[in-house]
User: Fold this.
Amino acid sequence: MNLNQVTLPVTNMPEAVDFYLKLGFTLIVDTPHYARFACPEGESTFSLSLTDHCGAQHAVIYFEHEQLDEWVEHLQRKGVVFEQLPKTERYLWREAVLHDPSGNKIKLYWAGENRLNPPWRVNVTE
Assistant:
């Protein structure tokens, strides 16, 4: 099984599309009510769905990049505002936090080997 995509609600489609293009994603579907992006690496995609009200945001979308600090500096030069600059968290992921124009929380991160194999990984036996 493979994750196909994540869809985020947005209240202003043109503003949201511009924001994700600024982050470096490739727009592959563009309609007034729905947009879909391909990630710069791999085969992952994510989409945006137009809504009247996003409500309380509980989901967080993560985008991984090996050169996290350089990527964040590049985005800051483009005017992207961060809630948290890159910081190594207690769970060993280095993360930066920001929000898209509709308030969706985004974490840009690098976890390296710790993403799939943290020191506390559970060993499952069948």
Q: What stands out?
A: The chain has one domain: 5-112. The domain at 5-112 is CATH 3.10.180.10 (2,3-Dihydroxybiphenyl 1,2-Dioxygenase; domain 1). The chain has a mean pLDDT of 91. The radius of gyration is 16 Å.
